[in-house]
Amino acid sequence: MEKDLIMKKAFENKKEGLGLYNIINRAKTINADYTFTSSPGEGTFFEMKTSMNI
After folding, report:
1. Taking CA atoms, which of 23, 30, 33, 43 is between 20 and 30 Å from 50?
2. How far is the C-alpha of 47 from the C-alpha of 30, rounded, in Å?
3. Could you read off the pLDDT of 1-54 as tens digits, one per residue?
4. CA triplet 35, 41, 46: central angle to 5 degrees?
5. CA 24 to CA 54: how far, in whole Å?
6. What is the pLDDT of residue 6?
7. What is the DSSP string of 11-48?
């Protein structure tokens, strides 16, 4: 599913649950890149990448 469509659905469905909304919001907060991969019967895979200065 396209990232913009996932974000739109997450923000539309805030009343039903905040899980996906919170994940996207936290990723944006730390300027992370993220992807969702979802297939019927296979579940959903979420990957988030960000850089850290140690």
Report:
1. 43
2. 14
3. 556 666 666 666 555 556 777 888 888 899 999 888 888 888 888 899 998 887
4. 15
5. 24
6. 64
7. HHTTTT-SHHHHHHHHHHHTT-EEEEEEETTTEEEEEE
pTM of the model: 0.54
Question: Distance between CA 33 and CA 13 in Å, rounded?
Answer: 22
CB atoms within 10 A of CB 6: 19
Return the structure tokens found at 43. 């579940």
So what's the pLDDT on residue 38?
80
Diameter of the chain by CA atoms?
Answer: 40
35 backbone φψ class: left, alpha, beta (φ>0; ψ -120 to 50):
beta
